[in-house]
Amino acid sequence: QPATIPTDTSSSSIQMDHSSTWAPNNVVSAARLIITKLNLLVELFKVPAHADCVGNNYADKLTKDAHFDQDNHILFKLDATTMKLLPQWNGITIENRLRRFIRTTATYKGLENFINLRKNTKYRKLEVDWTSTFQCLNCNIQNNETLMSSSKIKAQKVHLLIEEIPTIEQMKKSFLEIYDDWKCPSCGIEDETFNHVWSCDKHKSTLLRIRNRTINLLVYWILECDTHLQNGLVNSSLLNLYIWDIDHNINKFTFIDLIKGIIPSMLYQTINSWTTKDNSINILIQMRQYIFEQTFTEIWLPRCSYLNKFEWSLGLTKKKKLTLKNFRSISPKNNNNDNLEFSFDALESIRKNIYFGYNIIDFYTNLTL
C-alpha cells in the first residue's frame, strides 16, 4: 500500500533511507514498525518549512496540541517499540543502554561500599574531592594501554588508598604465628598500623621535609600557571589550609590523607581559584605523584629493607613463612559497618542523576552539604 508523506526536514528522508544501518532512534524505530506492520510503500518528499499544505498544517496542529496538553503522559523510549520488556531500577524505567547502566550502578555501588567502611568515617563527614582523587589515582594508566609498570604503580596507590600495605598489624592477619608480639620495626615501641608508619617518631623529620617540599612545589607549579600571582599570597593561602599536620586525626584532614591519595575539596578549590580546572588537576596529579614517590623511597622502602634483613637473620624465608600461614587466627574485631552514622547505601547519587541530571561523582564530593 503506497503512502506519500511531505516533510520539511531533509534529514528525515536521509534517516529513513539509511534506517537499517543507523543507530536506532525512537521516532525512526516507531516509523519502521508501522511501515512493516502495515506493509506500506512510503515515499518522502521535501517541502519548504511551514509550507501551507494539508499534511504540514495537520502535523503542526498535532505538535501544538501535544505541547499544550498537560495530560499527555506518553513517553517514547529508545528502542521501546522493539522491546518486549522495559527494564526498571527501583521502579524507574531505564532509558539509556542497559549494559552501561549496570556498569555505572556497579561502579558507584562499589564506591559507596568503600566510603561506608568504618575506617573511612571521617570522609563521610569531611568534603573530599573524589573526582580529583580518582584522576590522580588513574593518571599513570591510559584507557587503551596495559603496562606492567603503570599497573604496578596503580596497585601500590590503591593499597595506600585502602590502607592495605603490609604493615606488621596487617601481616598478623595471615601470619599471627610469626608476628604476634612484633612492634614497629623502626621504633620498636608502638604497634605498626598504617597511620603509625608515617607518624612514627623515627620518620617524623623525613615526613616534615617531604611536606615542606610539597608546599614549595605547589607554590612553584601555581606560579608557573600565572606569573602575575604573588609568591607570598599563594604560600600563605596554602599554609592556612588545615591539611598539613603530619599526625593522624580522625576529625580533620592531615598530610597522611594526602599520602593515601585523598584530595580535600578545600585544596582543589584553593588551587582552582588561581588557575583553570585543567591546570588545577595537573597540579594535583604532580603533587600526588611527588608525595607517592618520596614517601615510598624515603620511608617505606628503607623500612622494608631493614625488616627483610631482620627476618633473614631469624631464618624467616618466604618458604618458611608459607608453612606458618594462617596457623593461628587473629581475634576478629568488630569492624562491621552496621548502624554507622552518615552511612550511604541507597545509591541516592544515581537516583538524583536520573531525576535531576546531577553529576554522580559530585554527589559524593558534597556529602556534607
Automatic annotation (TrEMBL):
Superkingdom of the organism of origin: Eukaryota
PROSITE patterns (alphabetical): RUBREDOXIN (PS00202)
* Name by which UniProt lists this protein: RNase H type-1 domain-containing protein
Q: Please give one Gene Ontology molecular function term for this protein.
A: metal ion binding
In terms of InterPro entries, this protein maps to: Rubredoxin_Fe_BS
Q: Which UniProt keywords apply?
A: Metal-binding
